[in-house]
Amino acid sequence: MSRPDLTAAELRVMKALWEVSRGTVAEVRAELARRGQDLAYTTVMTLLGRLATKGAVTVDKEREPFIYRAAHRRELVLRDRLREFVREVFDGKAESLVLNLVEDETLTRAELRAIEQRIAEAEGAADEPKPRKGKK
Q1: Whole-prediction pTM value?
Q2: Which long-range contacts (CB under 8 A, 24 or more apart) does 2-11 make?
């Protein structure tokens, strides 16, 4: 199942919805406000409606108020967004993104060490033999 393209406003609503797991317009709006994004009730309702039309959220209309739930896991949507960002901004070269992050003077030592650790883990996983398919 493909994940829909989201506008910046829709992504903000999705992030709030992921945080509450499932919720009404009012609950999503409250989470947005907690994040410093105070939107009108009707704006949140419109954005959730658009997300439902795009297939990004499911809507339980069995009771009122309606309950909204994300149709896709946060990690998958954010991974898609990151891949698109790398394609658009860095011409598909992920190493350019990583090098820019590493060279960024605002990263703390702890953040740099965390990046190093993730790279080491990825290298270790790449070195592990892959299980053979079809043979026992």
Answers
A1: 0.78
A2: 3/56, 3/72, 3/76, 3/77, 3/80, 4/54, 4/55, 4/56, 5/54, 6/51, 6/54, 6/56, 6/77, 6/81, 9/47, 10/47, 10/50, 10/51, 10/54, 10/56, 11/77, 11/81
